[in-house]
Task: structure prediction
Amino acid sequence: MLQTAGRKGTSTPGKAAPHKRYLEAFRWMLQTRIFEEKLTSLYRGGLITGGVYVGRGQEAVSAACGMFLKKGDVFAPLIRDQAGRAAFGEPLLDVARTYLGSRQGPMRGRDGNIHRGRPRAGQLAMISHLGAMIPVVVGTLLAKRMKGEKDFVGLTTIGEGGMQTGATHEGMNIAAVEGVPFVLVATNNHYAYSTPNDREFVCADLVDRAPAYGYEGRSLDGTDLSECLDVIGGAVERARAGGPPQLVVASTLRLAGHGEHDDASYVAAEIKGEDFARDSLQRAEEFIKEEGLADADTLAQWRADATAQVNEAVSTAQEEAAPDGNEEDWSAISTRTLTDRIS
Amino acid sequence: MSVSYLEAIREAQAHLLREDKRVFIYGQDISGNFGGAFKATKGLAAEFPGRVLNTPISEDAMVGTAIGAALEGMRPIVEMQFADFSSIALNQILNNAGTQYWRTNIPCPITVRLPSGGTKGSGPFHSQSMEGIYAHYPGLIVMTPATVEDAYTMLIDAVAIDDPVIYCEHKYLYYHLKADELPKNRLPIGQARVVRPGRDLSIVTYSVMVHEALAAAEELRADGFEVDVVDLRTVKPLDTDTVLASVARTGRLLCVGESFPWGGVTAEVIARVATEGFHLLDAAPARLNAKDTPIPYHPNLWSEHRPNENSIAKKARQILAE
Result:
């Protein structure tokens, strides 16, 4: 089952069969693209309230993030991480339920879209304030160490936009001070909403910051799935083995708006011809065909399987009841005896 | 033998570290033999190795780390060096800790200790009272202990509670407020306390202002007035019932707080009494807060910036004359 394969995905770069790993990653990427196209279509049809945020162009980076984490690890995904979330074990139904506001989803209509999470399953629920999840991951790792757990790692993702916040600076530093097994994967998709790199930072490459924080740093072409798997897999392995915190900086172009409400008309025409603007999914599919890793029938079958899984998740969520304000007890704390009530 | 308010806080933490393996303390300059800017953790690092941890000057990351540890089953206590610096951690406290349970159904049991309030010479950035800001946002419990007994028992309760607690300890009370011994009993969290019963005026207050209010009440007694003084103990949840019962006895209300005047705890108390107990009032309810300026450095200015025994007594006489 593809749904659960990522959980078991403990493949090690250079050791396990790389083709098998590549194909597994490709399937997570494919499923993500199909799911996000479905979500976009539901949004355009007025069936999703709020917004839809897709990872188009970043699927290879994200899939690699999820695939090397296993049960007991901590993953704090961000806005463009459907592929990584799925590879880490998040059911598609969680996604559909959250976007469609089902009361049976993990967020029960209280929060939407990319803000979903299951902290007890190691997947933290992001807040919108960028960099804020970095120290939270550090805290989970510190606790695991205090409890005597072994063989764990924490990974969170961010963009080049989020790399400029004070919270990111504090969080990156405290991870190194605590010496926890931590990986930060930063994707430079060249736009913070509409703001291009030249108004975001001036260092030559964000990975140059790594040594200043006591991290090992590596940069990679985020459109190349093989490189994503090797570099991110290696970073996870080194952190897990007791190495210093790892910073991976991937280069991509966001091949969509910030959200589906945004036509991204501000993206400069010339940047679309850059190598980092290529579509990682398309590149992976071409590679699979060139290398004969899977034949056309198999690829078609995978596409059909993913489409069926997506449709099933969406139709299930669509049939479920929406939350009802009259049935809420409107307490933001768990200790109900201490809920403040105003008449 | 006697125990100060500050010693009670230290003893509560020693008790928590001894009794509960999930507890650790996280803050600036709290470890080693230094024991914190105010010595609230003095000796604890040696007694509990690896559980009293110094942090970089990173308030946001300190609270973020505590949130992550709490989600993994620990019971972290974060010591802010001064309440004022918790402004750097507002995002983590309000948006991450405060929303966690509501959003994910997983509680977030962190305790953030805020050395709060003014003392002589501390100035604008080492004197603030932040309880109003934290009480305004959903998802947090806000404690404001006024006595040695409450300082001890409420901190122990704060760590036991499954939700985020903002524990506002008042620096003015640290050294001079003393009790004979640590308390053996505790009043439940969420319950206010009638410190002094009266029949002419209710003064509803909390934290350090309980003591200024008691001094004012003593002064008014010489004039023949019996003032009912209520210590809220927690400003969130706010024990409206005890406040209303007090106003029912007296018909008059003065609410006193050391924080800035716009909005906040005093405004909330008066709004509730006006809404739920309008019929109990024989005079317009009033409030007394610090002035709407940054907190001054010089003692001559500071002592007039905050409410004090004299200004409380003066305001009380105005209400009693109505």
